[in-house]
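FYI - complex with pyridoxal-5'-phosphate, inputs then prediction.
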Amino acid sequence: MKQEQSKKAFLEAQDVFPGGVNSPVRAFKAVGGTPLFIDKAKGAYLYDIDGQEYIDYVLSWGPMILGHAPDPVIAAVQEAVAKGTSYGAPSPLETKLGKLLQERVPYLERLRMVNSGTEATMSAIRVARGVTKRDKIVKFIGCYHGHSDSFLVEAGSGIATFGLPDSPGVPAATASQTISLPYNNIAALKECFEQHGTEIAGVIIEAVAGNMGLIKASEEFIRAIRDLTREYGALFIVDEVMTGFRASYTGAIGLYQVEPDLICLGKVVGGGFPVAAFGGKKVYMDQVAPLGAIYQAGTLSGNPIAMTAGYETVKRLTPDLFQQMLDRVEQLCTGLERLKEKYQIPLQVVSAGTMFGFFFNDHPVCNFEDSKASDHHLFAKVHRLLLEKGIYLAPSQYESNFMSTEHTKEDIDRTLQAFDHVFGEIYG
Ligand SMILES: *Cc1c(COP(=O)(O)O)cnc(C)c1O
Protein backbone atom coordinates (compact mmCIF):
# COMPACT_ATOMS: atom_id res chain seq x y z
CA MET A 1 0.00 0.00 0.00
CA LYS A 2 1.39 3.36 -1.04
CA GLN A 3 1.16 6.02 1.62
CA GLU A 4 3.70 8.68 0.65
CA GLN A 5 1.15 11.37 -0.16
CA SER A 6 -1.02 10.65 2.88
CA LYS A 7 2.03 10.68 5.13
CA LYS A 8 3.14 14.02 3.71
CA ALA A 9 -0.34 15.50 4.02
CA PHE A 10 -0.66 14.23 7.60
CA LEU A 11 2.64 15.87 8.59
CA GLU A 12 1.62 19.12 6.98
CA ALA A 13 -1.80 19.03 8.67
CA GLN A 14 -0.12 18.60 12.05
CA ASP A 15 1.35 22.07 11.69
CA VAL A 16 -2.16 23.42 11.31
CA PHE A 17 -4.58 21.32 13.39
CA PRO A 18 -4.07 19.64 16.76
CA GLY A 19 -3.08 16.09 15.84
CA GLY A 20 -3.52 16.97 12.17
CA VAL A 21 -7.29 16.44 12.20
CA ASN A 22 -10.55 18.26 12.78
CA SER A 23 -12.17 15.40 14.70
CA PRO A 24 -10.07 13.08 16.90
CA VAL A 25 -10.98 9.56 15.68
CA ARG A 26 -9.86 10.45 12.17
CA ALA A 27 -6.26 10.33 13.42
CA PHE A 28 -6.30 6.48 13.51
CA LYS A 29 -4.88 6.47 17.04
CA ALA A 30 -6.69 3.27 18.02
CA VAL A 31 -5.25 1.28 15.12
CA GLY A 32 -1.95 3.07 14.52
CA GLY A 33 -0.48 4.08 11.18
CA THR A 34 -1.26 7.05 9.03
CA PRO A 35 -4.84 8.09 8.35
CA LEU A 36 -5.67 8.08 4.66
CA PHE A 37 -6.08 11.52 3.19
CA ILE A 38 -8.95 11.44 0.75
CA ASP A 39 -9.01 12.86 -2.74
CA LYS A 40 -12.54 11.90 -3.77
CA ALA A 41 -15.33 9.43 -3.20
CA LYS A 42 -18.00 7.89 -5.39
CA GLY A 43 -20.62 5.25 -4.63
CA ALA A 44 -19.20 2.65 -2.24
CA TYR A 45 -15.63 3.74 -2.91
CA LEU A 46 -13.13 6.06 -1.35
CA TYR A 47 -9.98 7.22 -3.21
CA ASP A 48 -6.94 8.39 -1.29
CA ILE A 49 -4.41 10.95 -2.50
CA ASP A 50 -1.98 8.12 -3.31
CA GLY A 51 -4.50 7.03 -5.93
CA GLN A 52 -5.76 3.88 -4.18
CA GLU A 53 -9.34 2.67 -4.04
CA TYR A 54 -11.12 1.37 -0.96
CA ILE A 55 -14.52 -0.18 -0.32
CA ASP A 56 -15.82 2.27 2.27
CA TYR A 57 -17.80 1.00 5.29
CA VAL A 58 -17.39 4.21 7.28
CA LEU A 59 -19.40 6.40 4.90
CA SER A 60 -18.43 9.58 6.71
CA TRP A 61 -19.48 7.84 9.97
CA GLY A 62 -22.93 7.02 8.66
CA PRO A 63 -24.40 9.88 6.62
CA MET A 64 -23.62 8.65 3.09
CA ILE A 65 -26.39 6.05 2.99
CA LEU A 66 -26.86 6.47 -0.79
CA GLY A 67 -23.13 6.08 -1.25
CA HIS A 68 -20.80 8.97 -2.04
CA ALA A 69 -21.76 11.71 -4.47
CA PRO A 70 -25.09 10.25 -5.66
CA ASP A 71 -25.85 11.89 -9.02
CA PRO A 72 -29.41 13.11 -8.33
CA VAL A 73 -28.45 14.59 -4.95
CA ILE A 74 -25.41 16.33 -6.43
CA ALA A 75 -27.54 17.75 -9.25
CA ALA A 76 -30.15 19.10 -6.81
CA VAL A 77 -27.44 20.62 -4.62
CA GLN A 78 -25.81 22.30 -7.62
CA GLU A 79 -29.13 23.82 -8.56
CA ALA A 80 -29.69 25.00 -4.98
CA VAL A 81 -26.23 26.58 -4.69
CA ALA A 82 -26.97 28.80 -7.68
CA LYS A 83 -29.99 30.21 -5.80
CA GLY A 84 -27.91 31.44 -2.87
CA THR A 85 -26.16 29.57 -0.09
CA SER A 86 -27.80 31.05 3.02
CA TYR A 87 -30.71 33.43 3.60
CA GLY A 88 -31.02 33.86 7.36
CA ALA A 89 -34.73 33.89 6.69
CA PRO A 90 -37.18 31.00 6.38
CA SER A 91 -37.46 29.07 3.11
CA PRO A 92 -39.92 26.36 2.05
CA LEU A 93 -37.00 23.92 1.76
CA GLU A 94 -36.91 23.65 5.56
CA THR A 95 -40.59 22.73 5.77
CA LYS A 96 -40.16 20.25 2.93
CA LEU A 97 -37.43 18.29 4.76
CA GLY A 98 -39.20 18.76 8.12
CA LYS A 99 -42.44 17.28 6.76
CA LEU A 100 -40.59 14.38 5.21
CA LEU A 101 -38.94 13.64 8.55
CA GLN A 102 -42.35 13.78 10.25
CA GLU A 103 -43.69 11.27 7.74
CA ARG A 104 -40.76 8.93 8.15
CA VAL A 105 -39.81 9.15 11.82
CA PRO A 106 -42.48 8.28 14.38
CA TYR A 107 -43.32 10.73 17.20
CA LEU A 108 -41.98 13.92 15.61
CA GLU A 109 -44.95 16.23 16.24
CA ARG A 110 -42.66 19.27 16.16
CA LEU A 111 -38.97 19.52 15.38
CA ARG A 112 -36.19 22.01 14.89
CA MET A 113 -33.26 21.90 12.49
CA VAL A 114 -29.73 22.40 13.78
CA ASN A 115 -26.25 21.91 12.32
CA SER A 116 -24.74 18.99 14.20
CA GLY A 117 -25.67 16.04 16.37
CA THR A 118 -23.92 17.76 19.27
CA GLU A 119 -26.29 20.69 18.93
CA ALA A 120 -29.31 18.40 18.70
CA THR A 121 -28.60 16.51 21.93
CA MET A 122 -27.46 19.65 23.75
CA SER A 123 -30.72 21.36 22.80
CA ALA A 124 -32.85 18.31 23.65
CA ILE A 125 -31.56 18.21 27.22
CA ARG A 126 -32.10 21.95 27.50
CA VAL A 127 -35.73 21.32 26.60
CA ALA A 128 -35.91 18.51 29.18
CA ARG A 129 -34.41 20.78 31.83
CA GLY A 130 -36.57 23.75 30.84
CA VAL A 131 -39.78 21.72 30.83
CA THR A 132 -39.19 19.90 34.09
CA LYS A 133 -37.35 22.72 35.89
CA ARG A 134 -34.83 20.10 37.02
CA ASP A 135 -31.09 19.87 36.32
CA LYS A 136 -29.98 16.25 36.39
CA ILE A 137 -29.55 14.18 33.25
CA VAL A 138 -29.11 10.40 33.13
CA LYS A 139 -26.94 8.90 30.39
CA PHE A 140 -25.41 5.47 29.92
CA ILE A 141 -21.75 4.55 30.03
CA GLY A 142 -20.35 4.11 26.54
CA CYS A 143 -23.10 6.09 24.80
CA TYR A 144 -21.86 9.12 22.88
CA HIS A 145 -24.08 12.14 22.54
CA GLY A 146 -21.70 14.67 21.03
CA HIS A 147 -19.11 16.79 22.79
CA SER A 148 -21.11 19.27 24.86
CA ASP A 149 -20.18 19.64 28.55
CA SER A 150 -23.05 17.61 30.00
CA PHE A 151 -22.16 14.52 28.00
CA LEU A 152 -18.40 14.30 28.44
CA VAL A 153 -18.83 12.55 31.72
CA GLU A 154 -17.65 9.25 33.06
CA ALA A 155 -19.18 7.40 35.97
CA GLY A 156 -17.11 6.42 38.95
CA SER A 157 -17.34 2.86 40.14
CA GLY A 158 -20.58 1.60 41.55
CA ILE A 159 -24.12 2.50 40.80
CA ALA A 160 -25.44 5.98 40.15
CA THR A 161 -22.19 7.72 40.92
CA PHE A 162 -22.30 11.39 40.14
CA GLY A 163 -20.21 12.14 37.13
CA LEU A 164 -16.69 13.42 37.06
CA PRO A 165 -15.57 15.34 33.98
CA ASP A 166 -14.20 13.06 31.30
CA SER A 167 -12.32 15.94 29.73
CA PRO A 168 -10.38 18.91 31.09
CA GLY A 169 -12.41 22.02 30.43
CA VAL A 170 -15.73 20.55 31.51
CA PRO A 171 -16.73 22.32 34.74
CA ALA A 172 -17.09 19.93 37.67
CA ALA A 173 -20.38 21.66 38.49
CA THR A 174 -21.79 20.75 35.05
CA ALA A 175 -20.49 17.20 35.14
CA SER A 176 -22.02 16.70 38.57
CA GLN A 177 -25.46 17.14 37.00
CA THR A 178 -24.93 14.11 34.78
CA ILE A 179 -25.50 10.65 36.16
CA SER A 180 -23.83 7.84 34.20
CA LEU A 181 -25.27 4.36 34.49
CA PRO A 182 -24.34 0.97 33.01
CA TYR A 183 -26.13 0.16 29.74
CA ASN A 184 -28.76 -2.59 29.78
CA ASN A 185 -28.84 -2.64 33.59
CA ILE A 186 -32.40 -2.22 34.87
CA ALA A 187 -31.49 -2.60 38.56
CA ALA A 188 -29.01 0.30 38.40
CA LEU A 189 -31.58 2.46 36.64
CA LYS A 190 -34.25 1.68 39.25
CA GLU A 191 -31.90 2.40 42.10
CA CYS A 192 -30.93 5.70 40.51
CA PHE A 193 -34.56 6.79 40.19
CA GLU A 194 -35.34 5.70 43.73
CA GLN A 195 -32.52 7.92 44.98
CA HIS A 196 -32.73 10.91 42.63
CA GLY A 197 -35.94 10.51 40.61
CA THR A 198 -37.45 13.87 41.55
CA GLU A 199 -34.28 15.73 40.44
CA ILE A 200 -33.98 14.05 37.03
CA ALA A 201 -34.93 16.15 33.98
CA GLY A 202 -34.39 13.43 31.42
CA VAL A 203 -32.82 10.17 30.40
CA ILE A 204 -30.96 10.04 27.09
CA ILE A 205 -29.91 6.85 25.32
CA GLU A 206 -28.69 5.44 22.04
CA ALA A 207 -31.35 2.69 21.91
CA VAL A 208 -28.99 0.92 19.56
CA ALA A 209 -25.58 2.05 20.74
CA GLY A 210 -23.05 2.60 17.97
CA ASN A 211 -20.27 4.35 19.84
CA MET A 212 -18.98 1.52 22.05
CA GLY A 213 -19.10 -0.93 19.21
CA LEU A 214 -22.59 -1.93 18.14
CA ILE A 215 -24.75 -2.95 21.11
CA LYS A 216 -28.54 -3.15 21.26
CA ALA A 217 -30.57 -2.20 24.29
CA SER A 218 -32.96 -4.92 25.43
CA GLU A 219 -36.68 -4.30 25.00
CA GLU A 220 -37.11 -4.57 28.79
CA PHE A 221 -34.44 -1.95 29.38
CA ILE A 222 -36.05 0.57 27.02
CA ARG A 223 -39.43 -0.16 28.58
CA ALA A 224 -38.00 0.36 32.08
CA ILE A 225 -36.65 3.77 31.03
CA ARG A 226 -40.06 4.72 29.67
CA ASP A 227 -41.90 3.55 32.79
CA LEU A 228 -39.53 5.22 35.25
CA THR A 229 -39.33 8.54 33.39
CA ARG A 230 -43.12 8.64 33.21
CA GLU A 231 -43.50 7.75 36.88
CA TYR A 232 -41.07 10.46 37.98
CA GLY A 233 -42.02 13.14 35.44
CA ALA A 234 -38.74 13.10 33.51
CA LEU A 235 -38.40 13.17 29.70
CA PHE A 236 -37.23 10.17 27.70
CA ILE A 237 -34.85 11.22 24.91
CA VAL A 238 -33.72 8.81 22.22
CA ASP A 239 -30.52 9.86 20.45
CA GLU A 240 -30.97 8.66 16.88
CA VAL A 241 -28.20 10.78 15.41
CA MET A 242 -26.49 7.62 14.19
CA THR A 243 -29.39 5.15 14.12
CA GLY A 244 -31.99 7.30 12.37
CA PHE A 245 -32.89 5.73 8.99
CA ARG A 246 -30.37 2.99 9.75
CA ALA A 247 -31.14 0.74 12.76
CA SER A 248 -34.45 -0.02 11.05
CA TYR A 249 -36.44 1.72 8.33
CA THR A 250 -37.87 3.94 11.07
CA GLY A 251 -34.68 4.10 13.13
CA ALA A 252 -33.83 2.48 16.46
CA ILE A 253 -37.14 3.48 17.98
CA GLY A 254 -38.85 1.39 15.30
CA LEU A 255 -37.38 -1.70 17.00
CA TYR A 256 -39.14 -1.06 20.31
CA GLN A 257 -42.79 -0.75 21.26
CA VAL A 258 -42.04 2.36 23.30
CA GLU A 259 -42.86 6.01 22.71
CA PRO A 260 -40.12 8.55 23.55
CA ASP A 261 -40.69 12.23 24.42
CA LEU A 262 -37.88 13.64 22.30
CA ILE A 263 -35.75 12.31 19.44
CA CYS A 264 -32.42 13.59 18.12
CA LEU A 265 -31.52 13.07 14.46
CA GLY A 266 -28.35 13.81 12.51
CA LYS A 267 -25.92 12.19 10.07
CA VAL A 268 -28.22 10.66 7.37
CA VAL A 269 -30.71 13.57 7.54
CA GLY A 270 -28.12 15.91 6.05
CA GLY A 271 -27.00 13.65 3.21
CA GLY A 272 -23.37 14.63 3.91
CA PHE A 273 -24.06 18.25 4.87
CA PRO A 274 -24.09 19.61 8.43
CA VAL A 275 -27.72 18.96 9.41
CA ALA A 276 -29.27 17.54 12.54
CA ALA A 277 -32.62 17.94 14.25
CA PHE A 278 -34.34 17.46 17.57
CA GLY A 279 -38.05 17.13 18.14
CA GLY A 280 -40.88 15.15 19.60
CA LYS A 281 -44.00 15.90 21.58
CA LYS A 282 -45.64 19.21 20.72
CA VAL A 283 -46.31 20.06 24.40
CA TYR A 284 -42.57 20.11 25.01
CA MET A 285 -41.31 21.52 21.70
CA ASP A 286 -43.79 24.41 21.87
CA GLN A 287 -41.88 25.64 24.91
CA VAL A 288 -38.90 26.42 22.65
CA ALA A 289 -38.41 30.07 21.55
CA PRO A 290 -40.07 31.98 19.97
CA LEU A 291 -43.26 30.20 21.16
CA GLY A 292 -41.81 29.53 24.60
CA ALA A 293 -38.97 30.64 26.82
CA ILE A 294 -36.43 27.85 26.22
CA TYR A 295 -33.83 29.50 24.01
CA GLN A 296 -32.24 27.82 21.00
CA ALA A 297 -31.03 29.39 17.74
CA GLY A 298 -28.65 29.03 14.78
CA THR A 299 -27.39 31.37 12.04
CA LEU A 300 -27.05 28.57 9.49
CA SER A 301 -29.83 26.30 10.81
CA GLY A 302 -32.11 25.19 7.99
CA ASN A 303 -29.50 26.18 5.42
CA PRO A 304 -30.98 25.83 1.91
CA ILE A 305 -28.15 23.71 0.46
CA ALA A 306 -28.11 21.38 3.44
CA MET A 307 -31.91 21.09 3.44
CA THR A 308 -31.84 20.18 -0.24
CA ALA A 309 -29.20 17.48 0.28
CA GLY A 310 -31.11 16.07 3.26
CA TYR A 311 -34.44 16.02 1.44
CA GLU A 312 -33.04 14.45 -1.72
CA THR A 313 -31.30 11.78 0.36
CA VAL A 314 -34.11 10.80 2.71
CA LYS A 315 -36.68 10.88 -0.11
CA ARG A 316 -34.73 8.26 -2.06
CA LEU A 317 -34.54 5.82 0.84
CA THR A 318 -37.34 3.46 -0.13
CA PRO A 319 -38.28 0.25 1.71
CA ASP A 320 -36.89 -1.69 -1.30
CA LEU A 321 -33.50 -0.02 -1.12
CA PHE A 322 -33.49 -0.49 2.63
CA GLN A 323 -34.14 -4.20 2.18
CA GLN A 324 -31.28 -4.37 -0.32
CA MET A 325 -28.92 -2.95 2.31
CA LEU A 326 -30.23 -5.45 4.87
CA ASP A 327 -29.46 -8.26 2.42
CA ARG A 328 -25.89 -7.01 2.00
CA VAL A 329 -25.42 -6.75 5.77
CA GLU A 330 -26.71 -10.30 6.12
CA GLN A 331 -24.39 -11.53 3.37
CA LEU A 332 -21.44 -9.94 5.13
CA CYS A 333 -22.36 -11.11 8.63
CA THR A 334 -23.10 -14.67 7.49
CA GLY A 335 -19.75 -14.74 5.73
CA LEU A 336 -17.97 -13.51 8.85
CA GLU A 337 -19.71 -16.18 10.97
CA ARG A 338 -18.41 -18.78 8.52
CA LEU A 339 -14.86 -17.44 8.84
CA LYS A 340 -15.23 -17.48 12.61
CA GLU A 341 -15.92 -21.23 12.41
CA LYS A 342 -13.21 -21.84 9.81
CA TYR A 343 -10.45 -20.21 11.86
CA GLN A 344 -11.97 -20.71 15.34
CA ILE A 345 -11.77 -17.01 16.10
CA PRO A 346 -13.18 -15.44 19.28
CA LEU A 347 -15.46 -13.19 17.25
CA GLN A 348 -18.85 -11.59 17.93
CA VAL A 349 -20.55 -10.34 14.79
CA VAL A 350 -23.39 -7.86 15.35
CA SER A 351 -25.76 -5.95 13.14
CA ALA A 352 -28.73 -3.64 13.45
CA GLY A 353 -30.39 -2.70 10.19
CA THR A 354 -27.77 -1.15 7.94
CA MET A 355 -25.19 -0.95 10.74
CA PHE A 356 -22.76 -3.72 11.60
CA GLY A 357 -19.74 -4.35 13.73
CA PHE A 358 -17.65 -7.04 15.32
CA PHE A 359 -15.80 -7.64 18.55
CA PHE A 360 -12.84 -9.95 19.08
CA ASN A 361 -14.37 -11.39 22.20
CA ASP A 362 -15.38 -14.84 23.46
CA HIS A 363 -18.62 -13.54 24.90
CA PRO A 364 -21.56 -11.53 23.62
CA VAL A 365 -21.07 -7.83 24.30
CA CYS A 366 -23.90 -6.11 26.23
CA ASN A 367 -22.31 -2.99 27.68
CA PHE A 368 -19.20 -0.82 27.73
CA GLU A 369 -17.32 -3.06 30.18
CA ASP A 370 -17.78 -6.05 27.84
CA SER A 371 -16.74 -3.93 24.87
CA LYS A 372 -13.60 -2.75 26.65
CA ALA A 373 -12.65 -6.36 27.40
CA SER A 374 -12.44 -7.18 23.68
CA ASP A 375 -9.05 -7.73 22.01
CA HIS A 376 -8.24 -4.25 20.71
CA HIS A 377 -4.72 -5.23 19.72
CA LEU A 378 -6.04 -7.92 17.38
CA PHE A 379 -8.59 -5.50 15.98
CA ALA A 380 -5.84 -2.99 15.13
CA LYS A 381 -3.91 -5.69 13.30
CA VAL A 382 -6.94 -6.89 11.34
CA HIS A 383 -7.86 -3.31 10.50
CA ARG A 384 -4.37 -2.57 9.17
CA LEU A 385 -4.23 -5.72 7.04
CA LEU A 386 -7.70 -5.10 5.62
CA LEU A 387 -6.76 -1.55 4.73
CA GLU A 388 -3.84 -2.90 2.73
CA LYS A 389 -6.35 -5.02 0.82
CA GLY A 390 -8.56 -2.04 0.03
CA ILE A 391 -11.18 -2.44 2.75
CA TYR A 392 -11.87 0.70 4.76
CA LEU A 393 -13.47 -0.09 8.13
CA ALA A 394 -13.99 2.23 11.09
CA PRO A 395 -10.57 2.60 12.75
CA SER A 396 -11.66 1.43 16.22
CA GLN A 397 -13.56 -1.50 17.69
CA TYR A 398 -15.69 1.10 19.51
CA GLU A 399 -17.11 2.36 16.23
CA SER A 400 -19.89 1.02 14.08
CA ASN A 401 -19.66 0.31 10.35
CA PHE A 402 -22.26 1.13 7.74
CA MET A 403 -23.77 -0.19 4.50
CA SER A 404 -24.92 1.99 1.62
CA THR A 405 -27.34 1.37 -1.22
CA GLU A 406 -24.32 1.33 -3.55
CA HIS A 407 -22.50 -1.64 -2.03
CA THR A 408 -22.93 -4.59 -4.38
CA LYS A 409 -22.87 -8.34 -3.77
CA GLU A 410 -19.45 -8.34 -5.45
CA ASP A 411 -18.19 -5.69 -3.04
CA ILE A 412 -19.25 -7.91 -0.13
CA ASP A 413 -17.64 -10.98 -1.73
CA ARG A 414 -14.39 -9.05 -2.16
CA THR A 415 -14.60 -7.88 1.44
CA LEU A 416 -15.09 -11.42 2.72
CA GLN A 417 -12.18 -12.67 0.61
CA ALA A 418 -10.01 -9.96 2.18
CA PHE A 419 -11.12 -11.04 5.67
CA ASP A 420 -10.39 -14.66 4.74
CA HIS A 421 -6.85 -13.76 3.67
CA VAL A 422 -6.24 -11.63 6.74
CA PHE A 423 -7.49 -14.31 9.15
CA GLY A 424 -5.43 -16.82 7.17
CA GLU A 425 -2.31 -14.70 7.69
CA ILE A 426 -3.00 -14.42 11.41
CA TYR A 427 -4.37 -17.89 12.21
CA GLY A 428 -3.27 -20.00 9.27
C1 LIG B 1 -22.31 11.37 15.81
C2 LIG B 1 -23.17 11.36 17.01
C3 LIG B 1 -23.46 12.52 17.75
C4 LIG B 1 -22.77 13.83 17.46
O1 LIG B 1 -23.05 14.33 16.21
P1 LIG B 1 -22.04 15.42 15.56
O2 LIG B 1 -22.72 15.80 14.30
O3 LIG B 1 -20.74 14.72 15.37
O4 LIG B 1 -21.94 16.54 16.54
C5 LIG B 1 -24.37 12.45 18.77
N1 LIG B 1 -24.97 11.29 19.09
C6 LIG B 1 -24.71 10.15 18.43
C7 LIG B 1 -25.42 8.91 18.82
C8 LIG B 1 -23.79 10.14 17.38
O5 LIG B 1 -23.51 8.98 16.76
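The two ends are 22 Å apart (CA to CA). DSSP finds 13 helices and 18 strands in the chain.
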